[in-house]
UniProtKB/TrEMBL annotation:
Family annotation (InterPro entries): MFS, MFS_dom, MFS_trans_sf
Localization of this protein: Membrane
Gene3D superfamilies: MFS general substrate transporter like domains
Keyword list, A-Z: Membrane, Transmembrane, Transmembrane helix, Transport
Membrane spanning residue stretches: 61-78, 98-117, 129-150, 162-183, 195-213, 225-247, 296-317, 337-354, 361-380, 386-408, 420-441, 453-475
Membrane topology (UniProt): Multi-pass membrane protein
MF annotations from Gene Ontology: transmembrane transporter activity
Domain of life per record: Eukaryota
SUPFAM superfamilies linked: MFS general substrate transporter
Species name: Cyphellophora attinorum
Name of the molecule in the record: Putative transporter
Every Major facilitator superfamily (MFS) profile domain range: 65-480
Length: 498
């Protein structure tokens, strides 16, 4: 459900007057008629641009924004999750990672740094500019990755992982923040899903790429795992340098990419949908005010429940395939890839259906439940085929959850300042999921990881319950808004997305 109304003047600037800057009074009257008939309000305006031109502008934005951000993020995701592949390619022996909890520590320090620097990075982005900041982060963590290929001790590797966490902290929230600022609420789901799909496929087939890179073993006196980091780091630097020339800034700041009429069209339609096309000032008072919103922590937990099994599969599936199912190192790397094809399909299908039927929470809950069941099958299946089916089920339904939760959150907040804080706090939950995975999936329990499996199951059930609580609260708020008893987010006849 959706509506249109006035802004919350505490957080955002007022939208354009409906009688000026591309709006016509006839459009406003038509809106009132179509709103009562159940039409989507934003679609009833013509904005002074014919519908064919409108579609061309949106497609122009899609092609300029989504592919490069998707490619840059997919590479960053590979960078942080290739540790498990490097482990089975000789890193464990070379760096003595089988001693104590060394591998667990190397996995965990990344996420500690990642969590700490989420919000600061997102606050820098609008001041530095989206292209400048995201490209800087990408080139920097690419350089760190290259250096990881030359490490000779586990302590140096841990330090590199911590630095990687500092630099990657702002990347996903920055990409999410930028994408959600360009589109209406029920356009975001399939676009975040499309953005995410590239990372899903790249992440899945990174296992095959990593296997190819291990064949360089012995070149320049380096083991195969070193070449995984060096080559992938070099690719990261190259792609992110190109990204600096391609990424566009926020709608109100963009210059040569759109004509003045097209820019006004984008601003008007966003204001018409949620009233926050123009950035409001970000300051400490606003940050602290936004952090009082209990929903931010529910969404953070939802994302933690989504990333915990994701990181578990990334870091430990190759180990399960090799040690638990008896496959060779090369077979375990190659078999890690196919489940991600199903996950790419499910991610887009669910994102598309969520936009079409304007629903978020229940779709996420179903995916989390099936993922939890898949992990149990992976751990306790009686045959290798059944366990591998569990990996298909778990990974296949898991990947939608991350863009699903980010869309769920983005649909239910307004103002740029809150969007910056909310996307960062949400992804802090994702970082906590990584820490939980590194702690719960104990090396001593390899290859079954009982503690990790049941921790993941419990967290998933709590997450599903929180979605139910939040959707019930949204339903009550929407009911009161329809009766004129409240204004959601300070906007008249504006409805939360369940």
């Amino acid at each position: 459900m959706r509506g249109i109304g006035t802004n919350d003047t505490r957080d955002v600037e007022a939208p354009a007057d409906p009688t000026s800057d591309g709006f016509k009074m006839a459009d406003h009257l038509e809106l009132e008629e179509t709103k009562s008939a159940g039409a989507t309000p934003a679609e009833s305006f013509n904005y002074g641009i014919d519908p064919t031109h409108q579609k061309r502008v949106i497609r122009k934005i899609d092609l300029r924004l989504l592919p490069i951000l998707g490619l840059m993020y997919s590479i960053s995701l590979v960078d942080r999750t290739n540790l498990g592949l490097a482990l089975v390619a000789g890193m464990q022996e070379d760096l003595d990672l089988a001693v104590g909890n060394r591998y667990t520590i190397i996995v965990m320090v990344f996420f500690v740094a990642y969590i700490i620097f989420e919000i600061p990075s997102n606050l820098i982005l609008p001041k530095a500019g989206a292209a400048n900041w995201l490209a800087f982060l990408g080139v920097s963590f690419g350089a760190i990755l290259i250096s990881m290929g030359f490490t000779k001790s586990w302590g140096t590797m841990a330090l590199c992982r911590a630095l990687l966490g500092v630099l990657e902290a702002g990347f996903l929230p920055g990409c999410t923040y930028l994408i959600t600022c360009w589109y209406q609420r029920f356009e975001v789901g399939k676009r975040l899903a499309g953005f995410w799909i590239l990372s899903v496929l790249t992440g899945g087939f990174s296992a095959i790429f990593a296997y190819v890179l291990t064949l360089l073993r012995g070149k320049a006196g380096l083991n195969g795992w070193s070449w995984i980091f060096i080559i992938e780091g070099a690719i990261t630097c190259a792609v992110c340098i190109a990204g600096w020339f391609i990424i566009i800034d926020f709608p109100s700041k963009v210059k040569s990419f759109l004509t003045p009429e097209e820019k006004q069209f984008v601003i008007d339609r966003i204001n018409n949908d949620r009233g926050d096309a123009i950035e409001d000032e970000i300051n400490l008072r606003k940050i602290l005010h936004h952090l009082k919103d209990w929903r931010l922590y529910f969404w953070a937990f939802n994302l933690m429940a989504s990333t915990l099994p994701g990181y578990a599969y990334s870091y430990f599936l190759p180990v399960i395939l090799r040690s638990g199912m008896g496959y060779s190192t090369s077979q375990s790397q190659l078999l890690s890839a196919p489940p991600y094809v199903l996950s790419a399909i499910m991610t887009y299908v669910s994102g598309f259906l969520g936009d079409r039927y304007k629903i978020r929470g229940p779709v996420i809950a179903v995916h989390q439940l099936i993922t939890a069941i898949g992990m149990i099958i992976t751990a306790y299946g009686r045959s290798n085929a059944f366990r591998y089916f569990g990996a298909f089920l778990g990974i296949g339904f898991l990947q939608y959850c991350v863009p699903g939760v980010l869309t769920y959150q983005a649909n239910n907040i307004t103002s740029h300042s809150k969007r910056a804080v909310a996307s960062a706090t949400c992804i802090i939950g994702g970082g906590i999921g990584g820490i939980a995975a590194s702690v719960a999936f104990k090396s001593s329990e390899s290859p079954n990881y009982g503690t990790g499996i049941w921790t993941t199951f419990a967290v998933s059930m709590v997450s599903i319950s929180l979605i139910g609580v939040m959707d019930f609260w949204f339903w009550r708020c929407n009911k009161a808004a329809k009766q004129g008893l409240r204004q959601n987010e300070g906007r008249h006849m504006w409805f939360y997305t369940l």
